Amino acid sequence: MKLLLDENVPKPLRQALAAFIVHHEIVHLLDLPGWSGTRDESLYPLAAAQGFHAVVTNDGRQMQRPREVAAIAASGLHRIEYPHKHQGLVGMDLAIATVAAGLPGA
User: Fold this and answer.
1) Contacts of 90 by beta carbon, 8 Å cutoff, 6+ apart
2) 44-62 per-position pLDDT tens digit
3) pTM for the full model?
């Protein structure tokens, strides 16, 4: 599986997820040249075309914007949202728990 972390996801989450989601590729959007600032309507089709299977985001408003909902649905990607705004270890713990629940097979 290839998992994309949206740019609103803290970069340290990639390392934390890699500790328990083994044998899968986890990439942060900010580590992909030219992807920073990509609008969600374009991001999901681009991610699908690049072989990603799921996107982890902290953007709770995506599902309220019809054009983004349509782009997500058309991409066929699994979307994992964790709308937690907590800082530090509490925020990281909540994000990890949400991703773990969203990927039970991992």
Assistant:
1) none
2) 999 999 999 999 998 888 8
3) 0.86
